[in-house]
Amino acid sequence: MEIKRLWHSRAVAEVGYDGDARTLRIRFKHGGLYDYLDVPTEVYAGLISSAHPWTEWGEQIKATYEFVVVE
């Protein structure tokens, strides 16, 4: 899984993506690690390229994709 640190986000610390499993992993700066399931590559790409990752993409991801709490 490729992990990217998002320095410019106030809420998201790190984002990872497993393209084979279509799993998006998000670690939040204030705690919590979540895997979002069956996420297309373009959603991951949009998240990491966004100036405001959680503001622009977070609501879409949270409302659209099932997730499991990792930590």
Protein model, in words:
With 71 residues, this protein is α+β, with helices and mostly antiparallel strands. Helix 1 (41-49) runs antiparallel to helix 2. It has helices at residues 41-49, 53-64, and strands at 2-5, 12-18, 23-28, 33-36, 67-69. The longest helix has 12 residues, at 53-64. A five-stranded antiparallel β-sheet has the order 1-2-3-4-5, with helices on one face. The chain has one domain.
Please outline the helices and strands.
Layout: E1 2-5, E2 12-18, E3 23-28, E4 33-36, H1 41-49, H2 53-64, E5 67-69
Antiparallel strand pairs: 1-2, 2-3, 3-4, 4-5
Helix pairs in contact: 1-2
What is the number of independent domains? 1
Q: Stretches where pLDDT falls below 50 for ≥5 residues?
A: none
Number of helices: 2
* Oligomer classification: single chain
Using only C-alpha atoms, the radius of gyration works out to 11 Å
Strand order of the largest sheet: 1-2-3-4-5
H/E series, N to C?
EEEEHHE
Range of strand content: 25-35%
Mean model confidence by pLDDT: 91
General form: globular
Helix content: 25-40%
Main beta-sheet annotation? 5 strands, antiparallel
Number of strands: 5
In short:
30% of the residues lie in helices and 34% in strands. With 71 residues, it is an alpha+beta fold. Helix 1 (41-49) runs antiparallel to helix 2.
